[in-house]
Amino acid sequence: MGTEEIKLAGLKVTLPRTRILQILETNKTRHMSAEDVYRVLLDDDASSIALATVYRVLTQFETAGLVIRHNFEGGQAVFELDNGEHHDHMVCLKSGKIVEFHDEIIEQRQREIAKEHGFELADHSLILYGEFKGK
Amino acid sequence: MGTEEIKLAGLKVTLPRTRILQILETNKTRHMSAEDVYRVLLDDDASSIALATVYRVLTQFETAGLVIRHNFEGGQAVFELDNGEHHDHMVCLKSGKIVEFHDEIIEQRQREIAKEHGFELADHSLILYGEFKGK
DNA sequence: ATCAATGCAAAAACTTTGCACTGAT
DNA sequence: ATCAGTGCAAAGTTTTTGCATTGAT
């Protein structure tokens, strides 16, 4: 389970970290804001973990490469577990539903474009905004 | 000049709006945060236009389709004039330099992917982060 | 004259930080 | 015992809003 990952990240294995990682692993929606995580903590636990701690832990997890932070529209950053498989996102402007996708053609073109501009690509963010229409 | 566009947007032609549009049109860097615009106003003008007004006007311009708001990394939103030609961005993490690009292959793939998911595409955001290397 | 637009200050929303206490090793 | 981790409250940042005044038509 997650305890290992925390240790490998050079962080002490504490209750807040274990719980937050657990929540990220088990929550039905993969993408959660700090507030989302905090709310689950409030509901599930009798324990009291501060919102500030949630932010701190998520930031540490991000630094450690355990989670990825996204800045979608709407102020709040959202976090998701980094499963190692890069992907982009489709965000429904109506429901907030998020679907992940990966397209090698797009990835390839990005690398080419960067190269053409003498740009050393470190990362990228591709988000499609729109609306899921019932099939 | 810009006066027409403001009128067409259904907004009264006022000094703050004229000046802000003018700044967006003439500033050497196309992408400016509200603070950037505000700073130019402070320097150039004896007039005093409030930061709140800059935010209000930029938001109105966005609604009117005159400018586009981007949420790049780093907290502050940046605005650019909408010249009608859609493009994406390369952002240098070192210098902050921004280069625009457009790639029809990527655009096309996005449309296809959206279609495959029953997703009605309204908009998208593609940002490449990295570093420009001397040629 | 009318009603939108603005300045100012206050508030809101999100996130970070200082500090004294707690807890993992 | 030590030093990282945490809770709490306070502060920081960016953006928005309420309200009285100003200004465009």
From TrEMBL, chains A, B:
One of its GO terms (molecular function) is DNA-binding transcription factor activity. CDD domains: Fur_like (cd07153). Zn(2+) binds at residue 92. Signal peptide: none annotated. Binds 1 zinc ion per subunit. Binds 1 Mn(2+) or Fe(2+) ion per subunit. It is found in: Cytoplasm. Belongs to the Fur family. This is Ferric uptake regulation protein.
